[in-house]
Specification:
alpha+beta, Ribosomal Protein L22, Chain A, 4-stranded antiparallel sheet, transferase, 4-PPantetheinyl_Trfase_dom_sf, magnesium ion binding, holo-[acyl-carrier-protein] synthase activity
């Protein structure tokens, strides 16, 4: 599977041009948040459309991309591709796979300290395993656990409507959660990312950088 990263804080992004790649419904949804949230949504969705346009050989605005149960899905002749996206801080990621399901989540390492204070989302086994590790290791372990849960819930099409505690992660970088295989996304510090795919094989991720149009 392939993942593209984008720097959401790069001043070279043309937000107005990116918005023109979106459908009216996508622009309306993006506009429901704060200016920062709106910018993030516009850049992420336009990035996903750009990537899919290249893969499918069509204009980004013509990609048959829709939203079902809160997640992006493709229809028609493009339905063989599964897609997902996430963002945290300055980093955005979009993922594409030929598996029947896909979820991706990314978080900044400093989120691990917040998650440490909100442990009701952990299963008993997860909480016990993390508690036995040193304080310096716990933030990254918590983030890996959280991103795996979010990736699985996205892949299942339910998102955080289902309690994260209902997902029991493997407590390792790779493993299985029910029918889903989970694995890490190689990202620069301070980010931690995980993917979940509907496959018996552990996901192998290729990462590329997506620059603003006209930039290297």
């Amino acid at each position: 599977m392939r993942v593209w990263t984008l720097d959401l804080h790069d001043p070279h992004w043309d937000e107005a041009a990116a918005a023109r790649l979106l459908l009216p419904a996508e622009r309306r949804r993006a506009g429901e948040g704060t200016p920062e949230v709106a910018r993030r949504r516009v850049l992420l969705r336009s990035a996903l459309r750009r990537v899919l346009g290249r893969l499918l050989g069509m204009a980004p605005q013509d990609v048959p991309l829709d939203v079902r149960a809160g997640r992006p899905v493709l229809s028609g002749g493009a339905a063989h591709l599964a897609v997902s996206s996430s963002s945290s801080g300055a980093l955005g990621v979009v993922a594409v796979s030929r598996s029947g399901g896909l979820g991706i989540d990314v978080e900044r390492l400093d989120e691990g300290f917040r998650l440490a204070a909100e442990r009701d989302w952990l299963t008993e086994a997860e909480a016990g395993a993390i508690a036995r590790r040193g304080p310096s290791e716990q933030p990254s372990l918590l983030l890996r656990c959280w991103t795996q849960k979010e990736a699985v819930l996205k892949a299942a099409g339910v998102g955080l409507w289902r309690p994260p505690r209902s997902v029991s992660t493997p407590l390792s970088a790779r493993g299985r959660v029910g029918p889903w295989s989970v694995g890490p996304v190689p990202l620069p510090a301070p980010y931690v990312g995980s993917v979940a795919v509907d496959s018996r094989r552990s996901p192998r991720v290729r990462v590329a950088r997506l620059a603003p149009a006209g930039c290297a």
